[in-house]
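We close this part of the discussion by returning to an individual protein. The sequence in question and its structure tokens are set out directly beneath this paragraph:
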Amino acid sequence: ISIAAAAVVPMTAIEGGYMKRWMVITLLLLTSSAVLAQAPATVTTGIVEAVIGNGDLVPARFAEIFAYPVDKAADMKATLQHMADVINNTRVETSRMHGTTGPEMNLVEIECAKGLIRIRPILEGTGKPTIANELGEFQLQVPKQPYTVIAIGRVGMNAALWVGDLASDQSVLKLARPTVACYDPSGVALAQ
């Protein structure tokens, strides 16, 4: 499917392999959670936020934070990056063909939000998330080893997903640049 056509085709047609990989990734993450429970935990503090148009940082209030051992999360990171690339390429092509406003661009944002709607329960199915406070701050208690940290939440009228790496000796983590961000003024994508 061409990127130009992707703007008006449901996300299921442009997903490629990224949603198909989720079942295998979910199984890997569920089996790794039993191993994590056995190792002593260390505390890492962090913040989830995003830079908005005027350059200000806005917190991702009450974002859900998930931590996975790096060796178990490589496919997940690649899948999320693929999703972000497809969405961003579709935005660029739609903007080039139809402009930055109008129904075509609205369809791209709707499909972006639908992607987050599909991903969230998969993440939640891998374990209980840590919830950021109203300032986007959180604390993770994880065994001392490298982790991939994934956060999903809202910043203003946008639903977003962040992916970051946490080194085994790192005590502070800042997630400030979403991997995927979707304009979602209705709040439907991440409604509780």
Observations:
- The radius of gyration is 17 Å.
- Confidence is low (pLDDT under 50) at residues 1-37.
- Residues 70-98 form the longest helix (29 residues).
- The first strand starts at residue 41 and ends at 51.
